[in-house]
Each structure stands twice: as structure tokens, then as C-alpha cells.
Task: structure prediction
Amino acid sequence: MEQQWLQWAKQLQAIAQAGLTYSKDIYDLERFESIRNISLEIMSEFTKVDTTIIRELFANETGYATPKVDIRAVVFKDGKILMVKEKTDQSWALPGGWGDIGLTPAEVAVKEVQEESGFDVKAVKLIGVMDKKCHPHPPSPYHVYKMFIQCEIVGGEAKEGIETSSVDFFAKNELPPLSIPRNTESQIQLAFKYLHNPEEPAYFD
Result:
């Protein structure tokens, strides 16, 4: 589902980043820097965002380029799914965020639920690992793997967090406006599938 220009820009950025990391020849370094600049120009042309801003966001890493990991917690109560309202876009998402260095995916899921919703949970099952490019998210400068981890409530109470303004549970057919960069309707519907079919093997793409 990812647009072709974005795939090309990401691939050029990854090639340039690896080349700038491992090359020693001064002429090769110049060539890889040129490739990086081309990737920035592609992003700027299609997004209409200044290249200086894109460089800070899109070309700010060193070392071998690898996908980022986004963790989303799937929590059910009385047949409804837990969601939080994000302050950044005033839309709703499963509790979650970027993976943290030093924490396992399960630990990140538990931490994010507590920080964003007030509930204490335990992680019980990996529902799926999804490549963001294969789902109807808006264009993203990063290549992202999204991990959906089912959790069970063990304590706490609904309480908004630093990044969230509201906490609620929603039925399958009564979903609120979704924060599409974070989760899509099809992903939420897939989560409900696992609620009703607990023996279903983990989804991956």
C-alpha cells in the first residue's frame, strides 16, 4: 500500500546511511552523501516540506539502517477494546509507542498502558507483527514494524496521561475516530478476531 516514491526514498536513504557508515574512501563518501541528498529531495518534492526539516527527521541516523519497532497493547474488558485519545491529533489509538532500549516488547506494552491509560496490565499473547507499509497508514519516513500484544487488566483505573486526554473502551462496531498513523480500522478489527478466536496463530506480514 505504500506509495512507490516513498519506497524509493527510503531505499536510497538506507543505502546512503550504510555507505556513509562503512565506506572509507573519500570519493565514495561523497557519492553516498549525494544519494542521501537525492532521497531528501524526493521526500521534499512529494511532501512539500523543507529539506532542512526532512533531514532532521528522515536522515538523522547513522549505522546500518534497520526498521523501527512500534508496540501496541490490545486490552479487552467486557468485550470492548481499550483506547486512548491522543493529544497530538485528538484521535484514538491503542496504548503504545516506540520500543525502548533495555525493555522487552511485553515490558513496553505494559509500561505504555499504565502511562497512557492508568491501568495495570500483564502481557499474555503476541497477536501479530505487521509491516506498516502493508497497511493503510499515511506515508511515514521510517520503515516500521508494528507489534500488537494482548494484555489483561490486573489493577489500576482509567486515568489520562501526559500524551493522552481521555481513556475509554469501545465495541467492535462503535469505534471512535482513529489516529491512523498509529492504528487502522482493519487492525482494530483484527484484534477483535483474536478476542473471539483465542487459538488463532499470530498474524505476520
